[in-house]
Each structure stands twice: as structure tokens, then as C-alpha cells.
Specification:
CATH superfamily of the largest domain: Trypsin-like serine proteases
Low-confidence stretches: none
Radius of gyration: 16 Å
Order of helices and strands: EEEEEEH
Helix content: under 10%
Number of domains: 2
CATH class of the largest domain: Mainly Beta
Number of helices: 1
Mean pLDDT: 81
Length: 127
């Protein structure tokens, strides 16, 4: 199983594949797993992005190895102004293209009020 943002799957009409163990979507390496099913948070709202999370179940077992490991979670609470880490193949700008190489960034964690005042037009955060 994999935890993912629900919004990215809320418009899926065809079967999805997840790529594990590679930093490139185009070089053919890595392990590809077919999504068998996914389940949104019962209170997910695609208009407000409230509870934007889902669980994916795969048709086959994903093998752990040197390049495929379970995600680790913070061992203690994260605090505002500490750094958080993100990674993904998403768009690199608002109207840009999806990256084919896995990107990562270190970003400061901001509070709900600051986040909502910056992004309130599109996706307010509810806590």
C-alpha cells in the first residue's frame, strides 16, 4: 500500500501505474506496479482540498531492496520554521510541464494562517 494525495487520483479514468526505485520516469529503470484500487479519505473534498489523502493498493507486491524502502515519518512533531523535505515528479512551475526526473526540495514549514493567506484563493488548509 502507498499513501498519496487524493487530488492527483480524483480525475483518473484509466488504470494507473506507480514507478518505484528510480529517479527517472523515462529511462525504463525501476519497478512499475499497477494500482489495483485506491480509497480516498471519507471526507475528501476536491474543491477545498480538505482531507487530501488516499491509500493505493497494488495488484502485485512491491519488492523492497536497495532503491525501494518504506517511507519514514518524523520521530517527533515538526514545528513552524523548521525545514521539511518534499520530492516528486510534479510540475516545476504553475503553468510548466511535469518533470521526468525526480526532484527534491527543502522548504520551511509555515503555519496554517500564513499558508492560507498566501494560497487562500485556490486551496485553503484546514486543521
Amino acid at each position: 500500500m502507498l499513501v498519496n494525495v487524493a487530488y492527483s487520483l480524483s480525475f483518473q479514468k484509466k488504470q494507473s501505474t506507480v514507478v518505484f526505485g528510480t529517479s527517472s520516469l523515462v529511462d525504463g529503470s525501476g519497478h512499475r506496479a499497477t494500482v489495483d484500487s485506491f480509497r480516498f479519505h471519507e471526507d475528501f473534498n476536491s474543491k477545498t482540498m480538505h482531507n487530501d489523502i488516499c491509500i493505493l493498493r497494488f495488484a502485485e507486491e512491491v519488492p523492497y531492496g536497495e532503491k525501494i524502502q518504506p517511507a519514514c515519518f518524523a520521530s517527533s512533531a515538526m514545528h513552524i520554521f523548521q525545514n521539511g523535505y518534499i520530492a516528486g515528479w510534479g510540475k516545476t512551475s504553475e503553468s510548466g510541464f511535469q518533470s521526468t526526473d525526480l526532484l527534491e526540495a527543502v522548504l520551511p514549514i509555515v503555519g496554517t494562517l500564513e499558508c492560507n493567506s498566501t494560497y487562500k484563493v485556490r486551496h485553503p488548509i484546514f486543521v
